[in-house]
Amino acid sequence: MLWLGVAVGIGIVLSVLGFLLRKPSANNNPNMEQQSPMERAIEEALSDAARLLETGQTWDAEQRMVSLVEQVSQEAGTTSREYALALFNQAMLFLWMDDNTRAIPLLRTACEIAEADESMTADLLTFQENLGVALSQNGVHSEAVELLQESLNRREKFFGRNHSGYACGLTSCAEALTRAGKPDEALPLIEEAIKIDQQAQNSSVIEEIALKSIILQAQNEEDIFPNWSDLPAKLQSEIPEVVHRMSRTHQPNMVLGLYQKLRPLYASSQPRDLQKLKEIDVAISNLARQVENHPARIAAFQRIMENIGEHHPESVNTLLGMAMAYTDAGQTSSADDAYESALRVSSQNGPPASQAQVQRNYAIHLAETARIEPAKQMHQEAIGNARKSGNEELLGRTLCAYGIFLQHAGQTEGVVEFLEESLLALPKSHPDALSAESHLVALREGDSCQCSETNIDSYLDFLKKLVLDRAPEGLVDQITYDEADLESPVSVSVTREPTEEESQQLFNAIQNSLTEIRMSSSRAFYTE
């Protein structure tokens, strides 16, 4: 039996990354004004992969790009522009999946191909920018800044200092410097970029203004939008969404402070933009949850409810979020009130699915506060409404919650059936499917479920099931986890010496499975 160390960590499942992506375009690349059939095929492959990714088919999305890269390598060769573009598009898919680890080597190779061909200068600039941003987001700050500064010099020669192509490089370099803890060096760069794009009337100026606010917040400046009143109304309305998109890879405490300074600007405007205020409060509540700032989180939910009222389609989810915020703050009575309000509103205005979601969450809260019989009744009502809704995923989640509740309460009769039915209803990579599977394993082996502990064995059992679907047939024997091994905590035992192609497929299978679990977890609502 052979063992392979795999440099991937369980921690990747919990990471949340954003990404600012820039692609080669006909606007700055004369080579792409007339696309060849192969170049069109490369773009179509990425579009196909994106559609698959949107529906949760991460492995199929990956395989679409793997096949494309292999086809291009055979037809155009591995030193061709087409091959570099194929690698770049494959890297784009990984970046959309927040998998910088696999994107970075692809971008490096694309850069090497472009550097050897003078006609690919525009492509090289795009490849370098995305590589620099990926390195920056992965914490490789020194190399990222050095690469982006080198690329900026190339942009000056290629575009000139007054071109938006140069401003684009200034922006990427400024953001990398900010992540590296050097906002003072970043500020003059972003101010130059804003000046260039304002004169050019380039739409990218909105991203640059948003980044400037992040830089000023990193400097602890009080006024992070010094020229707010001079901004056109259209730009003002777009700022919250752009800040949200760009701020995901910065420190949440810093970004929370930014939003708290941004909100009064909208609150004092006339007429008040209630939708923007709601979006800002949603962002504040999410960031406050990350940093455990309970007062800020609760206040944000209270403002949202004042804003939208009980008859709004989002009122039930808002009340559920408020209830969870009170629970996390240890305010049980207030949490009860919020759940009761959510229950009343969903019963009056909501479909069975909405009622089932409220009842499921409320039941969990009741059980956690030692009100067992009311919790049991609430769980049963949740399952009934979930069945009426026809929503299979919701049914799986309510069944899973009830099965785990019964197991914790020592009422094991029927638990296996509830958990097994939940697994039939849930996608394999759903976080609740992991919970159901781990509790089933404990039941069958006569062990406690160890919910209060890190259940690595159950996690790895779940991971193995995903990997086996994607790895070469008959290759994987066992997967183990060693907390002491910081570089390669996940190891795989194989039944035979793998070929180079099999090793790559196995690595991709593990990375993809981790990514699918993480992406599924980030999509799930109220999984606690």
TrEMBL record:
Q: Which UniProt keywords apply?
A: Repeat, TPR repeat
The chain positions of domain Anaphase-promoting complex subunit read 79-119
Task: Report the SUPFAM superfamilies cross-referenced here.
Answer: TPR-like
Task: Provide the residue intervals of the TPR repeats.
Answer: 316-349
Q: At the top level of its lineage, which domain of life is listed?
A: Bacteria
Q: Does the keyword Repeat apply?
A: yes
| Signal peptide (residue range) | none
InterPro entries of this UniProt entry?
Answer: Apc5_dom, TPR-like_helical_dom_sf, TPR_rpt
KW Repeat (keyword) present:
yes
Q: What is this protein called?
A: Tetratricopeptide repeat protein
Query: Which species is listed as the source?
Result: Thalassoglobus polymorphus
